[in-house]
Amino acid sequence: MPHEADEVGGGGSAADRVMHASLLLEQLLNGVQFAMTLFLMAAGLTLIFGIMNLINLAHGSLYMIGAYVAASSYAAWHSVLAALALAIGATIVVGIVLEVGIFRALYDRDHLDQVLATFGLILFFNEAVRMIWGATALYAAVPRFLAGQVELLPGIPYPVYRLAIIGVGLAVALFLYLLVGHTRIGALIRAGASNRTMIGALGINIGLLYTLIFGLGAGLAALSGAMAGPIFTVESGMGDDFLILAFVVIVIGGIGSIRGSFIAALLVGIADAVGRAFLRPLLALAVSQSAADSAGPALASLLIYALMAAILFFRPRGLFPPRTR
Amino acid sequence: MTARRRAVTLATLAVLALVPPVAGALNQGFYVDLATRVVIFAIAALSLDIILGYGGMISFGHAAFLGIGSYAVGISVTLGLTNGFAHFGLAAGASAVVALVIGVVSLRTSGATFIMITLAFAQMIYFFCESLSQFGGDNGLAIPTHSDFGRLIDLDNPATLYYFALAWLVAALLFGNRLVDSRFGMVIRAAKSNERRMAALGFPVFRYRLLAFVISGAMCGIAGALLANQTEFLSPAIMHWTRSGEIMMMVILGGRGTLIGPVIGAAIYLVLENVLSGLTEHWQVILGSILVAVVLLSRPGLLRGLIARRPARA
Amino acid sequence: MNRLVGLVVAGAAALGLMPASGHAAADHVEIGFVTTLSGPSGIIGKHMKDAADLAMDMLGGKIGGIPASIVYGDDQFRPDVGRQVTEEMLKRDKVDFLTGYIWSNVLLASYAPAIKSGVIMIGANAGPHELAGAMCAPNYFSASWQNDETPETMGKYMNDKGINDVYMIAPNYAAGKDMMNGFRRYFKGRVTAELYTKPGQADYQVEISEIRAAKPKAVFVFLPGGMGIQFVKQYAQSGLRETIPLYSAFSVDETTLPALGDAAAGNYEVGFWAPDLDNARNKEFVTAFEAKYHYVPSYYAAQSFDAINMIDDAVRAVHGDLSDKKAMIARMEQAAYSSVRGHFAYNTNHFPIEDFYLLRIEKGADGKYTRKIDSRVFTDHKDAYYQECHMKPMK
């Protein structure tokens, strides 16, 4: 069966080369945008794992709750601020309830007990959202002022909403940079990531600090979920596979390091975008088009894991692990 | 093993052995199918316990070996090879080889990194098998015949299949117990609590762990071959990371580091899931709450306190 | 006890020792319904269960005049669980009929034990080609379609309309490849690209950028469930919809439309049925469904409704003698019951020979988006596999 898939990119004219360059640019932008959604999840996760040494598989559930609350609030009141405030607020409340009620008992426990308990929480929340909001996926609208496209370069209209996501991601990154690097709380966070016992010995109220950090992590996850709603599906279990990606990011970046998770998110996002866009045509140069059609996407989905395995092989503690002891 | 553990082990095996006659008496043949599934996952959970409970290697990709074992049987049958010895040999062998590759790469790391790398490998295998369109891809493949062991063992008969699987479980328990109490096992267990000391004593910890990992993988591969015979169907769905999580649940529920604990854990988890999903479509809320409650209300593992002596505080 | 007597009599009759009359009717009919009730795909199971319950209500809780009940099982979208649930229904609940089965892999995994047991099995959704071809069985019927027929409809439509330069997207798994093959069976025009994406993928911006660069005339996708919601939303947000229309199969339906809002308006789909299909039975079904449940039924619901009614009609025809499987099968082969798709026939492989339509996503009278019939593409369409079916008669 003849394909003409590569005629677009295969030509040698200047116009084709420009288009190819602009496609590359667009795909890079796509990668960055995906990275920002990932970063918001990963930042909270790395804080919680790094400082409290808690494996929280239910972080994806917090993301899901944020998405559900934001989508239903916006559908009811059409106010972005209200939706975000409610989503982040509600999720932080849920997070704090979990922290006080369940996680406090788990900090001293084995990672495995944490895995079992948080796995149970995933099951619980996946069904709970179905019971509360119904079995159908939720309608999540793009806010009107963010709908539409903008021409970044001539010929590349890009959805405004996705640019907004990039913006929010960068803003949060800046906020966290300032928080962690230039405030007292931030110093405590950095100290906690390096040496937990010491800050206790220094007389800091560990319980309160942990609750605050957990709340921050939950808020970040909720923001990620709220922003993801309009482009992804708001349904039960939406956080589960996304959680795996977030774990990949924090492991590559170095557990406990926000800077690490930012860089790692960029790496993963861009690698994923570039892999999906260009592996297939690249492969088609070497093998037949139909072989490339099936091998390309298979390889693209393996790419992130292979990347992680490769990085961990050389740097088992990730790219920017916080210095310990 | 301790006298208490031996008692629990014998009691469990006795209960399991009685399932077919009891089910027959109650005219509920279905319980034999459920019990077969329990036994298969018990072997998988047991194999995970060797490296996780005793060795401290938290592998989040163990379901991949269940898949490899099933695929060994399924692909063999599709290609015309029906000999049971070949099937099980291939299942164990292929799983061992894959475990070797995964182990060589991942055992250099530890902690969360190790968990993630094993997860990554499992996902890679899962995606790879999903794309194998000759063998049904994600649609799966029906396996028309059972593993052929000649007139010795007719796996078409559900009760025979059950006792066959149970025999493997007994073998796994015997082997596992010998392994963890042997010198090899001691090294693995010691390395779990203090790796540096073992290395200082001159033990090549990496090699010991790698061997344990391979043995564990091969054992789980056997479980996979049994699963293929039971479900008569091949599907990559069995290799999804959430299935690995469930095997881990069974180990933790029953009590890690006891070998018989995961067997009981598998029974509890699968029976609970079966009963609850029959009661209500919202069964996940209940099961999830139970898991959380189990962790909060009991110290290491539901039955570990009953089965094993409480370990001295590290 | 009645059933035992009936079995003995039927057995004797088969040996020609006694005339086949005076068979005793069963006193209860048990129908096993395997579907997905939990998780994100539980919405499909809900549609099916609601429709099956409605069918039972309208029949007064009786199948063929005999008190009946439906036992539902949750396959959790897992083939091994689906098979276990099927075994449970056969051995523990001792069901007289099995139906449901949303997913091809669950159906394929559950098929062998069901067929071996002799129970009549009616697929109410998935239609894998194996069951239409080499693996066909006398006690298996499809109340829906064969998987390929739906994309075949789109292929034929686009081919007839001379639409060229089509960009095809499907997930990289067996069903995805099957759908694209089905499409190509009837579409002989130019294909710009055939792209396979990662199953479960959430973000399609990369692929959408590719589409923009490739400048096709139309996009055809197979992206079921959440993937479809995501793609359609993102496609609408990209603004490409005005210039490059979106056609799909099994990607936009009444289980996902509530989440899509305007994003799917004007898109094209294909199917054998739509809520506005113009016949008396369908009007009756849709009106009753919406009155009871307050949402628009999907084709999953329509198929489940038909499956229950098909069973009722067959049991009625044998006057409740459930042991006379041959007669029930013969009756079912006639497709004599009143179906929501209108009149249709069964092929030799027990798959329907039915019409297929091009559908358009539009707002219904109640303001909710739904699939509406645009035009008929296939009349009395047969699947591509029936000639591979060499059905051995039931023992």
Walk me through what this model shows.
- Residues 1-12 of chain A have low confidence and may be disordered.
- In chain A, strand 1 (149-153) and strand 2 (156-159) form a beta hairpin.
- Chain A has one domain (33-314): ABC transporter involved in vitamin B12 uptake, BtuC.
- In chain A, helix 3 runs antiparallel to helix 4 (80-106).
- Chain A is 76% helix and 3% strand.
- Chain A has twelve helices and two strands.
- A two-stranded antiparallel ribbon of chain A has the order 1-2.
- Chain B has one domain: ABC transporter involved in vitamin B12 uptake, BtuC (Orthogonal Bundle), CATH 1.10.3470.
- With 314 residues, chain B is an all-alpha fold.
- In chain B, strands 1-2 form a two-stranded antiparallel sheet.
- Chain B contains 14 helices and two strands.
- Chain C is of the alpha/beta class.
- Chain C has two domains: 2-145 and 277-353, Response regulator (Rossmann fold); 149-271, Response regulator (Rossmann fold, 3-Layer(aba) Sandwich).
- Chain C contains 13 helices and 14 strands.
- At the A-C interface, helix 2, helix 5, helix 10, helix 11 and helix 12 of A face helix 2, strand 8, helix 8, helix 9 and helix 10 of C.
